[in-house]
Each structure stands twice: as C-alpha cells, then as structure tokens.
C-alpha cells in the first residue's frame, strides 16, 4: 500500500481510539494565529482544538528541498509529509513510544522543511550519513529518522549515526505501528 493510504489508516485508527476513550477527536495545541484546515471549528478549549484528517489537494512534495540539498529523498518522505494536514501521530513500535511529526498547516510544512535542512546540514558537518527525522521518541535525544541512502527508518541519537533499523521503509513502519 502507498504511504498516503497507510498514513490515513493510522490517523483514522488514532482518531477512533480517541473517540472511544474520550468521546472526542484528538487534541492539538490551538493557536488562533496559526489556523489549520484539520482543526474542527467550534471545538477550541483551553488552548486546544480537536482535529480531523485534512487531505491536501494537490499533495505537496519535498523535491525542491532535495534539489537544494543536492541529495535524492525517498518519494515516501513526500507522501508522509505532503498528503495530509493533521495533528501528530502517537504510536509504539519495538517497545519504543514514538510520535510521528505531521504538518498542521502550510506554515508548519515550511518550518518542517527548514528543520530538515538544519538536520541534514548538521549531519554533514559531523561527517555522518544524511538522514531526515520524521518523529520523536519518549527519550528527548532519540529521533525516528529515515536514512536517505536507502529509505530505512531508524532510531538515531541526536548527533550520532542511526543505530537501530525499525523498518525497511516508511510504508513498512506505518504497517508495524501500534497506534495509540
């Protein structure tokens, strides 16, 4: 299955879990100066808002960023970050609590690309292989990253080489996630 299809399935599972457990959709930080098409109007409370999946049409890609960094990106990265606006996706895999970072709106997508640029440049300064982070873990200094040379999803400590492969690619990762 495509990353877009797998991601939608995972996001929908998260929404269903939240609805069953709390009787509402998942919550995200609410900033009136940073609206999202994923935010459900009228659900804002105490700096939080409920969200739903919002499909981007047309979808976005990371081709210009990859060209600027002079490195090919796996197409699955564009599908992960360019298919939908939503909140982040909490899950677990291999005993690790993870949170996939997903764009909330177009400004967030631009910020994500800036952060990816900084990450890749840091990796190059350290003379390490290029990776792109796609999520966080329960440990502050442990990232969920994609190796650009082969598309594998790995765990990587900040400033270190990836040390543990979780999945061969993003699609496989999404299939293996235990969505919370």
Automatic annotation (TrEMBL):
Any Pfam family hit: Syd
Keyword entries, A-Z: Cell inner membrane, Cell membrane, Membrane
GO cellular component: cytoplasmic side of plasma membrane
UniProt entry tagged with the keyword Cell inner membrane: yes
InterPro entries found in the cross-reference section: Syd, Syd_sf
UniProt protein name: Protein syd
Organism from which the protein derives: Pseudoalteromonas ruthenica
Biological classification of the source: Bacteria, Pseudomonadati, Pseudomonadota, Gammaproteobacteria, Alteromonadales
């Amino acid at each position: 299955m495509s990353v877009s299809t797998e991601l939608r399935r995972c996001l929908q599972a998260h929404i269903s879990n939240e609805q069953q457990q709390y009787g509402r959709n998942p919550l995200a930080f609410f900033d009136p100066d940073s609206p999202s098409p994923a935010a459900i109007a009228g659900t804002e409370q105490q700096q939080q808002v409920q969200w739903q999946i919002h499909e981007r049409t047309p979808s976005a890609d990371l081709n210009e960023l990859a060209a600027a960094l002079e490195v090919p990106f796996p197409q699955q990265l564009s599908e992960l970050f360019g298919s939908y606006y939503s909140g982040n996706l909490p899950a677990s895999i291999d005993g690790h609590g993870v949170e996939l970072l997903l764009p909330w709106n177009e400004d967030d997508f631009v910020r994500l690309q800036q952060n990816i640029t900084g990450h890749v440049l840091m990796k190059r300064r350290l003379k390490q292989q290029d990776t792109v982070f796609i999520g966080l873990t329960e440990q502050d200094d442990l990232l969920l990253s994609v190796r650009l040379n082969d598309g594998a999803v790995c765990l990587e400590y900040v400033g270190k080489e990836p040390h543990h492969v979780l999945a061969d690619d993003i699609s496989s990762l999404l299939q293996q996630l235990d969505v919370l």
